[in-house]
Prior knowledge:
Structural class: alpha/beta
Low-confidence stretches: none
Mean pLDDT: 90
Shape: elongated
Oligomer: single chain
Helix content: 40-55%
Number of strands: 15
CATH topology of the largest domain: Rossmann fold
Strand content: 5-15%
Amino acid sequence: MTKIRLHNTKTRRKEVFEPLDPQNVRMYLCGPTVYDRAHLGNARPVVVFDVLYRLLRKEFGADHVTYVRNFTDVDDKINATALARKEAGAVGTLEELIRERTEETIGWYHADMDALGALRPNFEPRATDYIGAMIAMIADLIEKGHAYAKDGHVLFRVRSYQNYGALSGRSVDDMIAGARVEVAPFKEDPMDFVLWKPSDDELPGWDSPWGRGRPGWHIECSAMSEELLWKKPLAEGHLSDEAKKFPHMFDIHAGGIDLQFPHHENEIAQSCCAHPHADGTPGEFARFWLHNEMLQVEGKKMSKSLGNFFTVRDLLDQGIPGEVIRFVFLQTHYGKPMDWTAEKAAQAETTLRKWYKLAETALDNEEPYVGVLNALTDDLNTAAAIAECWQLYHASDAPSLRASMSLLGLMSGSTPGWASLPDVDLSAYVVALADQRAKAMETKDFSAVDALKSALMAAGVEVRMSKAGVELLPGAGFDASKLPDV
RNA sequence: GGCGGGUUGGCGGAGAGGUUACGCAGCGGAUUGCAAAUCCGUGAAGACCGGUUCGAUUCCGGUACCCGCCUCCA
């Protein structure tokens, strides 16, 4: 087996990845807040960590990887949307409208990420289905002295966890000195963060020992990763003795670099304090932390005010295929900022058309090229993997190219429709063109044959004339309605 | 202010202390009535200033500029 090496944010180094239990590799990715369509930036972690998921499945076996990606469906933006609908006269309770909104958004999300070739995770828990687990965890943190209740809020006592800031390389004192923290009367320390907050009648809420309220953002990931990556496999007997030596731990936790602080830092604090070692010292959590860098658009941050903000669905609706979006993502290493440009998309489409044309001549059962595999096992070097695919293309190695594209998520079963040549009968044009050409060869007057040729090219037909004869192929921009009359 | 990432040839984008990245575009050639497609060949680089070294784009230090986070946005 090839050694997989991954850049671990926790140690800031590339390390050899060895799972706690090769029979059950466990990873968690912070998923979307489901208040609206996923924008392009939301898609980057989904795609890059989908490649990781595929690689892990390849190396450890498809049935030996558990991938969890959550849906955050407790959020003020969701509440605001639901409230706006209610005020606009929508029927139903606020809770129903929220459920409606999040259901709808999850459906969009699935459709959009499917289009990008991302496999569905094994579990996609919704925060609202784990409120009980969160409340239990919060109560436990209070009992252990790591959290305190005040005025209907429950806060995590940051000073109670000595390693706070280790992931992101910050110290509590420095951050307070930097002074952009919210000072609230109910906080013991300005850096303390919310585990639970009260809800008024206009907001969704759940009963808790601290009154009706809702969870803070960070606790959901701590609770759900514990439930699905530790408790559940443990209860079902899916953990080896080796894995049981590392209670509450799992292998990989991934997300965007913007989540490094505070979100992931807070997750670590909660989980490590909730699950201490036998001697009472803080426990451990995820072993590998992977973060993808941010996405830009035409060299600038994507933002609504710059007018360069768009969703995955916007691009798909513009006719940019999901495979093309995926290819553009994979051209840049996940740890570097990535720039989305229209030109890249156009080039990616050209490349993929070439590759599919070769790859579809092979069957589906070949092993991916070792060069591609080696590139991916080296910290998911997808850019290098693509370069390796070019070698396969130039060598006309269709089976290896096809298998490699599959591993990259660019080929699932068959060539996508957009890259297939339209099935049209152009034989009448072939005859006409060959006929006119033969005449022109004698008369030396090529005006008629050139006119027909340009008309065909204008309709998106690729015209090939050689000594052997005339060949017509519908090309990328083929439009049957533009075909000339013969 | 604090923390982190980046700066590679016309463009995109990797690896490696000394040996061709790769793709697109360009140029030359084959092929074609002319093209297209394809194939072959080819020029071109590592922000700036120091240091380590026989040798650095690759390691170390500094400077400049860009970007992200610190404001529940991946």
